[in-house]
Design brief:
Layout (H helix, E strand, L loop, with lengths): L9 H23 L20 E6 L5 E3 L2 E3 L1 H8 L7 E6 L5 H13 L5 E3 L5
Parallel strand pairs: 1-4, 4-5
Antiparallel strand pairs: 1-2, 2-3
């Protein structure tokens, strides 16, 4: 008997069907995350303003920074006065900084009713 060399395509078809099922399942999840809404209209609406964000940092030398500009604690207090209570505050503190300086900044924010606070951390 003469032996014919042939490529067996059945395993290839099985793999393609599994990949097709994965792609279709993933595509379904992607499309459901985009929710289209028909929002009601109102006469007294205002356009959304981008949220104002203020960055405050404390480095290892215990220097305070307001929007990347070095400031003293009293200057920081003065710069916080004109801010609205909805202003988002982003606080970045070096891990070597004493807890006391962190609390000083938190206290300044609380006295000005600036409670929309985010604390920056890094992922391990």
């Amino acid at each position: 008997m003469k032996r014919f060399d042939q490529i067996n395509v059945i395993p290839f078809i099985d793999i393609m069907l599994v990949l097709l099922a994965i792609v279709l399942t993933t595509a379904t999840f992607i499309s459901t995350q985009q929710i289209k809404l028909d929002l009601p209209a109102a006469e007294n609406s205002s356009s959304p303003h981008p949220e104002e964000t203020v960055n405050i940092s404390i480095d290892t030398g215990l220097a305070f920074y307001f929007e990347k500009q070095p400031v003293s604690l009293t200057t920081l207090e003065k710069k916080l006065q004109p801010l609205a209570s909805e202003t988002a505050i982003v606080l970045s503190v070096d891990k070597a900084v004493a807890f006391e300086q962190f609390i000083q900044v938190i206290d300044l924010l609380k006295t000005r009713n600036l409670e929309n606070l985010s604390i920056v951390v890094k992922n391990p």
